[in-house]
Design brief:
Rossmann fold, 6 helices
Length: 195
């Protein structure tokens, strides 16, 4: 299994049904403390506080709950920015974000979301960011990633964008077998078997 520390940054990308959410679930299960921004309402972890109310999720975090799944009714960049500010101040938690490109769009990442990625390591904050379209996600999460997992990606723009970060092997992304992914660990990239 891939070893991910609590304060690592991870980017996971790929088309629908390629294995992103399954992989994120496996990473969540290994985390000591987490806050999941579950945009598509696909995550279910036993013993986690789960809510669709943003204020309830923030209050649970303020009261010390460290296993929270928030299922937003509507995705909101302002709401996500407020969440990042609170998580940064509390520390010692891993943030999981599904549909990350919708709360951190290219060239429009908010100040608090940026600070969490840039400075969160010292507060023991990590992040796992999922996106179907890598080119729509702001470049900061991927540029700061300790791990990049790229499942099947077929659009040339996304492959080109991925290639900037992990090199020529990105050209294999359109031909990956189901649930296989390109795994970049900061030094090298391999084709990883399904987990």
């Amino acid at each position: 299994m891939i070893s991910i520390k609590q304060n690592d940054i991870v980017t996971i990308c790929g088309k629908r049904g390629s294995g992103k959410t399954y992989l994120m679930n496996q990473i969540i299960k290994s985390a000591d403390s987490f806050f999941v921004y579950d945009a598509l309402h696909q995550i279910s972890i036993s013993n986690a506080y789960t809510t669709k109310n943003f204020n309830d999720a923030l209050n649970a975090l303020r009261k010390g709950s460290k296993r929270i799944i928030y299922k937003p009714i509507q995705i909101s960049i302002a709401e996500y920015d407020a969440l990042c500010r609170l998580i940064y101040n509390i520390g010692n938690i891993m943030l999981f974000v599904d549909e990350a490109d919708r709360v951190m769009p290219s060239r429009a990442i908010t100040r608090n979301a940026s600070a969490l990625i840039d400075l969160g390591r010292t507060n023991l904050i990590g992040g796992v960011f999922l996106t179907r379209r890598l080119a729509r996600l702001d470049s900061l999460p991927i540029s700061q990633s300790d791990h990049v997992m790229a499942f099947k990606t077929i659009l040339p723009q996304d492959v080109k964008y991925l290639k900037e970060f992990i090199g020529e092997i990105a050209e294999q992304a359109p031909n990956l077998k189901p649930y296989h992914f390109l795994y970049y660990n900061g030094d090298s990239t391999i084709i990883h078997e399904p987990i």
